[in-house]
Amino acid sequence: MTDTTLQAEKGTSLWEDAWRRLKKNKLALFGLGLLSSFVVIALLTPWIAPYAYDAQNLDLGATPPSAAHWLGTDIFGRDLLTQIMYGGRISLAVGFVATAVALLIGVSWGAIAGYLGGRVDAVMMRIVDILYALPFMIFIVLLMVVFGRNLLLLFLAIGAVEWLTMARIMRGQVQSLRKQEFVEAAISLGLAPATIIRRHLVPNALGPIIVYTTLTIPSVMLLEAFLSFLGLGIQPPKTSWGLLISYGAETMEEYPWLLIFPGLALTLTLFALNFLGDGLRDALDVRRSAD
Amino acid sequence: MSLLSVSNLRVDFNTRNGHTIAVNDISFSVEKGQITAIIGESGSGKSVACYSLLGLLPQPPASIESGQALFEGHDLLQMSEAELRAIRGRDIAMIFQDPMTCLNPFMTIGDQLIEPLIYHKKLSKNDALARAKELLVEVGIRDPDTTINNYPHEFSGGMRQRVMIAMALINEPKLLIADEPTTALDVTIQAQILKLIAELQTKRDIGVIFISHDLAVVADIADQIIVMEKGHLVERGNREQIFHKAQHPYTQKLLAAIPNSTKATSSHEPEPLIQVEHLKTYFETPSQLVKAVDDVSFQINKGEILGLVGESGSGKSTIGRSILRLLPVTAGKVSFAGTDITALKPSDLKAMRRRMQMIFQDPYASLNPRMSVYDTLAEPLLLHGLESRKTVEQAVLKLMDDVGLARAFIRKYPHEFSGGQRQRIAIGRALATKPDFIVADEPVSALDVTIQAQILDLMLALGQQYGLTMLFVSHDLAVVRHIADRIIVLYHGKIVEQGSSEALFNTPQDSYTQTLLQSIPGQSLRAS
Question: ipTM value of the model?
Fold first, then answer.
């Protein structure tokens, strides 16, 4: 009996286990499927979009959904579906890249500060406080002035702001975890601090981090819209979901579809992220599985 | 008529993981003026049985399937929540294991004590305060005029338990239910609290239900003992019947698990492996300097098990951690096989760590919840290059055999194991690097008594097999006596006495050691 069980379970690690459990969660799989299809569409947009992104038809003007323009057109006669597809490229890229930047910096910063404690912790967290206190707009404008306007900079700027909260969450988690005896056990085994953080602390702090990450992605997308709206981010004819929504909101009484469809795209992404995030958190928590 | 008479009580639990019968058709009665002890290991249903009587179990998942519990002729199980609330705290009061979680940290104990008097008995504030002070004196708290204005955190564990008892007694209950009231306390304090409960019971002529996992604790005070196993009531009787004429195999097993033998002294050539010289470990808090370990010198010989005994705050765990350099040492020298560990550079420390390991008290906290048995045991083997990726699985399986874990459990996570099994994993991790020396910090005090005995025997056997030298830290003298060759008694960071187990137990020199020995529960058991 023992031999067969061993064979069946051979080679499982935390992540493989998590994937096995995630596969059982229908809602999370649905979220993952939806997100992946959005990403695939975004990648293929230049080839599959029905119109060119800057093709205008001023004679046409704003029209409701029709056979030629499935989601209608805006006041310049531009196809809304095409705009949403191109906008998705920007929004998804900003959302994922900026969040990844925030995740990377925030988790390592918070884990190091929380683990080392004492003076190192005090200095690292005061730096976070100072950055918190810095007015965000001034920071972005400064960056734009010095480096000129470009997309990569936008990613970095947003990421550089969003990691602060992540670092605080991580530090709190690590602070309570490092007092546990399994960390002391790891020290007495002779493990190096970096290994302890990577193998023993970060996996145990993932729950809140994942949840916060799924909340950060949509808020980053909206932040980009806000910056673009102020003229600091994406400029027409390039567009993003956030921009489409803010223009749509201006004309929602006459042309409601201009608000509804981009809004729908963002909402669906948000739902998918939440389903996936909850699923991931449960899947990574070995205690939740009864199997 | 009995004060409380429970018949055919059955409590079930319905959870997602299945259906369990927590309390299976038990009947017992509690007499006025007697102490009834309910004994059982965790999961035996002893607490569930009592909590269900007071409607303190969340339903669902719990459901009371059948039974009757007549308290002064009224069936508690048929009462509405409002009726029960009137009885709880007034006629039936409870004391819990951890008094800190049961007291409001933001209220002075005085305010907490007078609240029920003003609320239930409609006393004026001054009368209530006077009554509260009387009670504090009765439970042995000196100078009630000052202490009544203190907050819970300003009391020690034992004093806090006294306050809890005063609170339980304030409405003059007829039945007192004490759920493991001394488990969190030091052995000398435990003896005092047990004495207090017995005295109050006689003086007030009330009924007491004393729930405990430890037969020895109730040996001196119980009039009636009920033994529970897996929801069944397996045996009941008076002290004499249970301790000397136990019928049921489970009761016999519990009795056998009470450690009361002295380890046969084996002769070791006194070749020191560890030498501790003038060790001082101080902690600085903003308000004061705590001298946790204050100028301690001793040695541990090769192959020897040295017991380190003391109450909480005596510095015994700090010594263990200082030797392993898990804590910064303030002054002094610790040498391991001739090398001064306190002077080692971090780069040399890793190699030294392989040779000295630690087993922790709480097997729930000492294992990483997200690492399977395989990951936990493979980590030290791979870290120190003792096994390659290819051979590590065989080595892990061998370790599991050694500590008595079934091989099929290799991919399971800590939460899927019981406390005893987890401690086996932790022992396996400590042994993985084939160390010469192990610090065991209260390795069995979080475990049930029968499991305790198993783990102690395992440690003794593995100590032989691996040729280990061990520092065994514990507050429990009976346990240390069972396992150690030599014992050091600590008090407030200083050594008060040391000697062979036999000498220390038979002819203790120091007065503190004598007090400790007298506090071991179950004296009447041993005397007879």
Answer: 0.74
Q: Which of chain A's residues have a Cβ under 8 Å away from the Cβ of B354?
A: 190
DSSP B282-320: EEE-SS-EEEEEEEEEEEEETT-EEEEE--TTSSHHHHH
The two three-digit tokens of residue B253, written as one number: 């097993």
B352 to chain A: nearest residue by CA?
A190
Residues in contact with B432: Cβ distance below 8 Å, sequence separation at least 6, in sequence order:
B377, B380, B381, B386, B395, B399
Query: A188, A206, A285: which to substitute to probe chain B, counting the most B Cβ within 10 Å?
Result: A188
Of A187, A190, A204, the CB nearest to B369: A204
Number of helices (H), then strands (E), in chain B:
21, 20
d(CA A233, CA A242): 11
Is the CA virtual torsion A173, A176, A178, A181 positive or negative? negative
Angle between helices A241-250 and A80-116 (to 10 degrees): 120
Classify residue B357: in a domain, yes or no.
yes
Q: What are the tens digits of pLDDT across the range B181-230? A: 887 777 777 888 888 888 888 888 888 888 888 888 888 888 888 888 88
- DSSP reduced 3-state for B7: strand
Number of other CB atoms surrounding residue B346 within 10 Å:
9
Question: Which runs of consecutive H residues, i.e. helices, occur in chain A?
Answer: 2-9, 14-22, 26-48, 80-116, 118-133, 136-147, 151-177, 181-189, 193-195, 202-229, 241-250, 257-284
Q: Residue B26: which CATH number?
A: 3.40.50.300
Domain span holding position B164:
99-172
From chain A residues 155-214, the ones with a CB under 8 A of any chain B CB are 180-182, 184-191, 199-200, 203-204
In a domain, A186, yes or no: yes
Contact B407 A203 (CB under 8 A): no
Please tell me whether residues B355 and B504 are part of one structural domain: yes
pLDDT digits (tens, 9 = 90+) for B36-83: 889 888 778 888 888 888 878 877 777 888 888 888 888 888 888 888
Residue B432, CA distances (Å) to A13, A82, A194, B361 in order: 20, 62, 22, 18
Range of the structural domain that residue A158 is part of = 26-288
Does the structure show a pLDDT above 50 at B528? no
Tally of domains in chain A: 1
Cβ-defined contact of A286 to B413 (cutoff 8 Å): yes
Could you give the maximum distance between any two Cα atoms of chain B, in Å?
77
